[in-house]
Design goal:
The complex is a heterodimer of chains A (about 280) and B (about 525). With about 280 residues, chain A is an alpha/beta fold. Chain A has a single domain, classed as Nitrilase/N-carbamoyl-D-aminoacid amidohydrolase. Helices cover about 25% and strands about 30% of the residues of chain A. Chain B is an alpha/beta fold. Chain B folds into four domains: about 120 residues, Udp-n-acetylmuramoylalanyl-d-glutamate--2,6- Diaminopimelate Ligase, Chain: A, domain 1; about 110 residues, GAF domain (Beta-Lactamase, 2-Layer Sandwich), CATH 3.30.450.40; about 120 residues, Alpha-Beta Plaits; about 90 residues, PucR C-terminal helix-turn-helix domain (Arc Repressor Mutant, subunit A). Chain B is about 50% helix and about 15% strand. Chain B contains 20 helices and 14 strands. In chain B, the strands form three sheets. In chain B, strands 1-5-4-3-2 form a five-stranded mixed β-sheet. A five-stranded mixed β-sheet of chain B has the order 11-12-10-13-14. In chain B, helix 4 links the parallel strand 4 and strand 5. In chain B, helix 5 runs parallel beside helix 9 and helix 10 packs antiparallel against helix 11. The longest helix of chain B has about 35 residues. Classes of the chains: A alpha/beta (about 280), B alpha/beta (about 525). At the A-B interface, strand 1, helix 1 and strand 15 of A face helix 12 and helix 13 of B.
Chain lengths: ~280, ~525
């Protein structure tokens, strides 16, 4: 009997305030646990609006300490209660004025496993992220959770194959890609890049995008969250492009082994020839 | 097919078999392996630089009068035709060349350009007339087919026809299964001969995800979209005519479907209509459940190694139910069966607790819809797909039974057959002729066509029995004095010939009344 991980991602629309947004996500965790999900990842900056549509320092107050802040503490308790691994993409304040776009990973017993900080920070209309975040500086951690080895690669990161590869080399079985991306900008890439990364690195990817148009701008977040397997096949259906949706899917790790036995990409790569790629 | 399809385009090979051409004793002297090239036009040209005048696909006719004696010009002539992507060159022997010129033949062979010589003198005009008229007829037929299909589809749209009628029309023209999907490859509607459609759907997931869409194998796809957004596609599955006609049909169909959707021909989305027709077919039992499995799978319902939970929800709108299903992450189909009753078929993994998840869904439904009185009627979970129709019917019975008694019963969040007690049993047996006869016999005195009895006495009897023969409560509910109530009860007893103080007689009348009411639901 192969190992099957029941994994979940959750997409939703901005409710208008942080507390109700947190409650919606707590309920989603309960809904996921009711179905027997073992791991759940939320969308990028999950409890806030996507404030990077504007450049306003008022939104700095959405940042919290990780793991000392109240949101992480609250979800640690929930993870423990539900026996659910949680990936919490959120705004992190390391110290005043030092802010990151981060994801905290909580194990099924509520313990804090660590964080990933988004490396690639965009600065284009509607996505003024350099105003809010320092580039990530904690490498490419893969977290050994109760259900499997999990990596996180946040939003704009997904356009850069190097990080996907680093997570693969570090043994990730599932990589979550929490995002906030707009219809007009990236729709043509959304079902192309992550499946390609899943194929190249022979692991599962859970891609999450929020839904709706928020009052800070015109970005039309188009949801369509999904899981994709190492053969670039969507696992079940892709989520709605407009509605709040919890996506719960069974990921069969036998598929990962089967594909890696078929294609020996990790054996055949030539790192000694890739020097120019890392030249500054 | 209701419309004559256009003649297929002429290939070089076909042109050479025309009677008028055969009279010229044609001989292929080069490029024999490329005779299936299509001839778009026939062009007579004696100019040495004819290549610059062509736009591709022409069959060029020449006597070669300007080429005689200049071997370099002869080779260049062939090369220029090749560069211009001419379909073939036809050289009339006699005037300039008594026999096939070797230089031209070799050059044509190297380029892969079919070169044909005509051994008998032959007026080129006859050939051009023959081929041209065929090509024009073909174009005209294509335009005519396009117009016929468009007119038919537009007529249906303006008449307010549902999506299915449009697709049936397209399938008639195409003579093959036609499938409409959303972008997630979920099948929203199909048309065509049932068994052929089922064959296509059986392997739909694999077929649909084959990238690109190779039209050579008869799979013709057209995108559906408008206002800058794509939202689906239509696929002709295994079209047997020529590619161009298939393309034309698919494009006309796509235009019509987009128009139909934009005009909002129906109150329901195509996804809803698709689920509705599937669940209705399942419940009706007219089509065996096994045959509906490919449709269910193609509609996006996971069906392999699953547990199915048939539900019927009273007073929940389908869109709202669909929204809550998505929110809690449960895969399922939702469709309105009748006013105020919506079927939901959940598909759960085998290891999931169906009862707990159904209760979870029902609780979330109440909290999300804000309607505390939403009733979810459930049948027991089924692991065999063949048992799903009976489950759906059971859930429907429970929902109906609840609808008539909601006030009288303290109901759990999920109601099952066991929760509706006698009412549920009577509901299940309502089609039984003995039960019907029993109800008629027991209530005959009140159902004899007397308006007074039916309008005044029957409701009083119903309340009296439902309230556990509580006279003061009944009087209160009917806004009558107790003496007035006594008089009505006496009238009822007289008409029915029973003593309602006798438990067995009262129970008998009660059951008869439940059976009577079940007939009305």
């Amino acid at each position: 009997m192969s190992r099957v991980i029941r994994a979940a991602v959750f997409q939703t629309a901005w409710t208008g305030d942080k507390e109700s947004m947190i409650q919606v996500h707590e309920q989603a965790a309960r809904d996921a646990a009711a179905q027997g999900a073992q791991v759940l990842c939320f969308q990028e900056l999950f409890y806030g609006p996507y404030f990077c549509q504007v450049q306003d320092k008022a939104f700095y107050e959405y940042a919290e300490q990780i793991p000392e802040g109240p949101v992480v503490r609250r979800f640690q308790a929930l993870a423990k209660e539900l026996g659910l691994v949680l990936v919490l993409p959120m705004y992190e304040e390391e110290q005043p004025g030092v802010l990151y776009n981060t994801a905290a990973v909580i194990d099924a017993d509520g313990s804090y496993l660590g964080k990933y900080r988004k490396h690639h920070i965009p600065q284009v209309p509607g996505f003024w992220e350099k105003f809010y975040f320092r580039p990530g500086n904690v490498g490419w951690p893969v977290f050994d959770t109760a259900v499997g080895r999990i990596g996180v690669y946040i939003c704009y990161d997904r356009h850069f194959p190097e990080g996907w590869r680093a997570l693969g080399l570090a043994g990730a079985e599932i990589v979550f890609n929490p995002s906030a991306t707009s219809r007009g900008l990236s729709r043509y890439l959304w079902q192309l890049e992550q499946p390609a990364a899943a194929v190249a690195n022979e692991y599962f990817i859970g891609a999450i995008n929020r839904v709706g148009v928020e009052d800070l701008g015109d970005n039309d977040f188009y949801g369509t969250s999904y899981f994709v397997d190492p053969e670039a096949q969507f696992v079940g259906e892709v989520a709605s492009d407009k509605e709040t949706e919890l996506v719960v899917r069974d990921l069969d790790m036998a598929k990962l082994r089967e594909v890696r036995d078929r294609w020996q990409f990790f054996r055949d790569r030539r790192p000694e020839a890739y020097g120019p790629l890392t030249a500054p | 097919m209701t419309t004559i399809a256009p003649e297929p385009a002429l290939s070089v090979r076909q042109v050479l078999t025309l009677d008028r051409v055969l009279a010229g004793e044609p001989e292929v002297v080069a490029g024999a392996s490329h005779l299936d090239r299509l001839v778009r036009w026939v062009h007579v040209a004696e100019a040495a630089d004819v290549g610059v005048m062509l736009s591709g696909g022409e069959m060029v006719l020449t006597t070669g009068v300007l080429l005689a004696g200049d071997t370099e010009a002869q080779a260049e002539y062939i090369r220029s035709l090749h560069r211009a992507e001419a379909a073939a060159v036809v050289l009339g022997l006699g005037r300039a060349f008594p026999s096939p010129p070797d230089v031209m033949r070799r050059a044509a062979e190297r380029c892969g350009l079919p070169m044909v010589v005509l051994h008998r003198p032959f007026p080129f005009a006859e050939l051009t007339e023959e081929v041209q008229s065929r090509l024009v007829r073909r174009k005209f037929a294509a335009v005519s087919l396009s117009e016929a299909v468009r007119t038919a589809l537009t007529g249906l749209i303006t008449a307010g026809a549902p999506l299915q009628h449009l697709l049936d029309e397209v399938a008639q023209h195409a003579g093959c299964p036609v499938v409409v999907t959303n972008l997630a490859h979920r099948v929203l509607a199909t048309a065509g001969e049932r068994s052929a459609v089922d064959d296509v759907l059986r392997d739909w997931e694999r077929i649909a995800r084959q990238a690109g869409g190779n039209e050579g194998d008869g799979w013709v796809r057209a995108e559906l979209g408008g206002r800058g957004e794509r939202w689906g596609r239509i696929v002709l599955c295994g079209y047997r005519g020529d590619t161009a006609t298939g393309r034309l049909l698919a494009d006309r169909a796509a235009e019509a479907l987009v128009l139909h959707r934009m005009l909002g021909g129906s109150a329901h989305s195509w996804e809803e209509e698709s689920a509705q027709s599937l669940l209705t077919d399942l419940i009706s039992g007219i089509v065996p459940a096994r045959q509906l499995l490919p449709r269910a799978r193609a509609a996006g319902l996971p069906v392999n190694r699953r547990t199915f939970v048939p539900l019927v929800v009273r007073d929940g709108d389908p869109a709202g139910l669909d929204r809550v299903l998505r929110m809690v992450g449960l895969p399922g189909l939702v469709a309105e069966l009748a006013e105020g009753a919506t079927a939901v078929l959940l598909s759960l993994a085998r290891d999931q607790d169906a009862e707990a998840l159904t209760a979870h869904f029902a609780t979330r439904l109440r909290s999300e819809s804000g309607a505390g009185n939403t009733v979810v009627a459930a049948a027991d979970a089924r692991t065999a797909w063949e048992d799903v129709p009976a489950g759906l019917r059971e859930a429907q019975h429970v929902a109906d039974a609840v609808a008539q008694s909601a006030a009288g019963l303290d109901l759990p969040v999920v109601v099952r057959l066991r929760d509706v007690h006698l009412r549920g049993l009577v509901r299940l047996l309502r089609d039984d002729p003995y039960v019907q006869a029993f109800a008629e016999r027991e209530l005959d005195g009140l159902l004899c066509g007397d308006r007074h009895a039916e309008q005044d006495l029957l409701p009083v009897l119903r309340t009296y029995l439902a309230s556990g023969r509580n006279k003061s409560r009944t009087a209160q509910l009917h806004h009558v004095s107790r003496p007035a109530l006594y008089r009505r009860l006496e009238a009822i007893e007289t008409r029915l010939g029973v003593d309602l103080d006798d438990f067995e007689q009262a129970a008998s009348v009660h059951i008869a009344l439940l059976a009577h009411d079940a007939q009305q639901g």
